[in-house]
Specification:
The protein is of the alpha/beta class and about 450 residues long. About 30% of the residues lie in helices and about 20% in strands.
């Protein structure tokens, strides 16, 4: 068996891994590297670039290692719907002719991305519910196991092969009190610990943190403490978070409703993620909120809100300070909106630690504070497992080999230290890799 570490092993993002068993290949994820996309957006529209050009600027995985064997690829498997896992498909999927498999929500989000590029491969898109199994060839089967993360219908993906199982956990956390959805399927995860798992590809992004990642319920209480615990009378309340974080959005709606404020969602990505969840009947927000995606409509709505902003709670895009997102444009006065002293902006997120993002957030916060805005940062818990969750996952699954993923060596080094404690050895059965390597197990 060969594991090809195509993307997401030298950076946080553009996740892509291929598993080759005899003459068959299965791909896990095809993600974007968002900092490269944001960097290029200052010069032009990255959607106009070719696949080769996107690889050159580091925006999508370099799949050269399997390019000549693309006919052997039996499936592209998607564990969840975040852009660093599915965002490269519109630029790469036409190089392959196999099915693309994901949960209904993940496939729903993918369809919106493909539609933006006017790509129709609906006949290749296959939905698989969590806690279900299907055959993808005579020798290979795929199983989705329910797990918690910061978006809906996230799965641990299990590839059943004649040489043993490959378990891919990008991304996960062990949340026993999720705000939306079910807690992890511990029963099934423990069943995997019967010695049959040959390789565990482990989301190790937070392995340097010696803790258990707090539940989403903790983030809900943090939000409640700010939204309901601060004097907001006649003040604007603007909240920004990840558009795909449906559980967080639910909490924001709940507390905004408690204040008797009309809740307005502003931004295309919010419209995309919330709209897909509504369509699949995974949530019912539409009776409680108004969603506006297109720019001209956002302008018109803000103009009306400005006349009596104490009656509204705005949720908008731009939590990472993206210059073209709604919040940055509001702060720069590029929209018919004026922040005033005492207005409240809540960042229900953490800043992604890249040079571009840090600079964008600093610029945004500077503009907000110039207007006397009260800024509440880091009202958030991570969607990624920390070191003690990694310990639990490894002890439940008992894999023969571990490959840390979802970050460069600095991010995943905690797994090496943990491995020493639980009798795994680097180079023997823990394999740290960079992009473009092939690990034979």
């Amino acid at each position: 068996m060969e594991i090809m570490t195509i993307g997401g092993y030298s950076e946080v993002g553009k996740n892509m891994t291929a598993v080759k068993v005899k003459d068959e290949i299965v791909i896990f994820d095809m993600g974007l590297y968002l900092p490269s996309i944001l960097r290029f957006q200052e010069e032009g529209d990255p959607r106009d670039l070719s696949k080769k050009e996107l690889i050159k600027i580091g925006a999508i995985p370099d799949d050269t290692v399997i390019e000549k064997e693309s006919s052997k690829v039996k499936a592209i498997i998607l564990g969840h719907g975040h852009l660093d896992h599915i965002g490269a498909l519109p630029f790469m999927v036409l190089n392959y002719s196999c099915p693309v498999i994901g949960t209904p929500y993940t496939i729903g989000i993918l369809k919106t991305l493909l539609n933006d590029k006017k790509i129709n491969i609906d006949h290749r898109l296959k939905e698989l519910n969590t806690n279900s199994l299907i055959k993808i060839s005579d020798k290979l089967s795929l199983e989705f196991v329910n797990i918690t993360h910061s978006t809906l219908q996230t799965s641990i993906t299990v590839l059943h092969t004649p040489e043993g199982k490959v378990v891919y956990t990008n991304d996960f956390k062990l949340d026993n009190h999720p705000v939306v959805g079910k807690k992890p399927n511990y029963e099934k995860i423990k069943e995997l610990g019967d010695g049959s798992v040959k390789v565990l590809i482990l989301d190790s992004l937070n392995s340097i943190f010696q803790m258990k990642t707090p539940s989403e319920k903790v983030a809900r209480e943090m939000l409640k403490d700010v939204v309901l615990g601060v004097n907001t009378e006649k003040k604007a309340i603007v909240v920004t978070t990840f558009s795909s974080h449906i559980a967080r959005l639910k909490s924001i709606i709940d507390f905004g409703t408690h204040l008797n404020r009309k809740i307005i969602f502003l931004g295309r990505s919010l419209e995309k993620y919330v709209g897909t969840a509504e369509k699949l009947k995974l949530i019912n927000f539409k009776e409680k909120i108004e969603i506006i995606g297109f720019r001209e409509n956002v302008k018109k709505r803000l103009k009306r809100i400005m006349k009596d902003k104490g009656k509204y709670l705005i949720v908008c895009t731009g939590n990472q300070g993206e210059p073209d997102a709604v919040l940055a444009r509001m702060a720069r006065k590029d929209l018919p909106w004026k922040f005033e002293s005492g207005d409240i902006v809540i960042f229900s997120c953490r800043t992604i630690p890249t040079v571009e993002t840090i600079a964008n957030r600093e610029e945004l916060e500077k503009n907000l504070r110039k207007s006397g805005v009260r800024v509440f940062k880091d009202i958030h818990v991570s969607g990624h497992a920390s070191l003690e969750d990694h310990r639990d996952m490894i002890e439940m699954i008992k894999p023969q080999h571990i490959i840390p993923s979802h970050g460069d060596f600095e991010k995943v080094r905690g797994i090496l230290e943990l491995g020493k404690e639980i009798k795994y050895k680097e180079g023997k059965n823990i394999h740290c890799a960079e992009n473009g390597e092939i690990i034979k197990v």
